[in-house]
Amino acid sequence: PPGKAMGHAGALLGSAEESAPANQAALADAAQVSKQTISQIETGKIKKIKPAFAEIFAQVLDVDVDVFTVD
Q1: Torsion angle of alpha carbons 23, 20, 39, 50, nearest 10°?
Q2: Tell me, what's the pLDDT at 18?
Q3: Whole-prediction pTM
Q4: Are the CB atoms for 55 and 65 separated by under 8 Å?
Q5: What gap in Å lies between CA 65 and CA 57, rounded to an integer?
Q6: CB neighbours of residue 62 within 10 Å
Q7: Packing angle between helix 9-19 and helix 35-43, nearest 10 degrees?
Q8: How far apart are CA 42 and CA 35, in angstroms?
Q9: The predicted structure's pLDDT at residue 67
Q10: Which of 22, 28, 38, 52 has the fewest CB atoms within 10 Å, measured from its CB?
Q11: What Å distances lie between residue 46 and 21, 22, 29, CA to CA?
């Protein structure tokens, strides 16, 4: 199934990453994607992420997964 629309996921990922010990490499490793993919999410080039990735990012960044959910 397609990923949920995550229009502001990049901004959330970038700001959460700044305040957490995780970095692009840690996020990429945890989600088993490239650092380039993480960068593309942060910059808005990738606007949709799968809910499973949102859960991984939330766990690594120690934030609630709901911050990645757009209604």
Answers
A1: 110
A2: 57
A3: 0.66
A4: yes
A5: 8
A6: 11
A7: 110
A8: 11
A9: 78
A10: 52
A11: 23, 20, 18
CB atoms within 10 A of CB 21: 9
Of 45, 43, 71, 37, give the one whose Cα is nearest residue 57: 37
Token pair, residue 16, equals: 């959460």
Q: Could you please report the per-residue DSSP string of 3-32?
A: PEE-TTHHHHHHHHHHHSS--HHHHHHHHT
Cα(41)–Cα(9) distance, rounded to whole angstroms? Answer: 7
Residue 24 in tokens: 């692009």
Q: In the structure encoding, which two tokens stand for residue 47, read together? A: 């606007």
- In degrees, to the nearest 5, what angle opens at C-alpha 18 toward C-alphas 40 and 24? 40
